[in-house]
Amino acid sequence: QVQLVESGGGLVQAGGSLRLSCAASGRIFSSTVMGWFRQAPGKEREFVAAITWSGIGTYYAASVKGRFAISRDIAKNTLSLQMNSLKPEDTAVYYCAAKNVGGAYYNRDSYGSWGQGTQVTVSS
Q1: Are strands 92-99 and 33-39 parallel, antiparallel or unpaired?
Q2: CA dist 40 to 27, 37, 91, 92, 113, Å?
Q3: Tens of pLDDT, residues 54-108
Q4: With 100 labelled, which of 18, 24, 47, 53 sits at a CA distance of 20 to 30 A?
């Protein structure tokens, strides 16, 4: 299991930026995939971005590509999500997640460990 704790959410105006962080501990390997998902009120939890802990691969949802950047700091065991040019439709609770087994990186059911979530609100 991987233990995850998010931070960095808040309220920002449209066009602004926020940086989310996720402190990770536990069973983390070079093959571990770390992801960010989000869930808006009344909607299903959706994929945002993912990265292999080795850093070889990064993946983004079409809706955030070019605006968001996922990264990880191995020395600090921290996952980050830099969010730029934020839009009101980015408003959601953001979760970091980790998977150590197979399954698609964009499929929330592939992830076995989840953080508690952090609220991001973008005002228009």
Answers
A1: antiparallel
A2: 29, 10, 7, 4, 20
A3: 888 999 999 999 999 999 999 999 999 999 999 999 999 999 999 998 899 999 9
A4: 18
Q: Considering only CA atoms, which of 45, 49, 19, 14 is closest in space to residue 34?
A: 49
Tokens of 38: 């989000």
Strand partners, 68: 65, 83
Q: Can you tell me the distance from the alpha carbon of 38 to that of 53, in angstroms, rounded to the nearest whole number?
A: 20
Average pLDDT over all residues of the chain: 96
> Can you name the residues that pair with 36 across neighbouring β-strands?
49, 96
Residues in the chain, total = 124
113 contact partners, CB below 8 Å, separation of at least 6? 1, 2, 3, 4, 26, 97, 98, 99
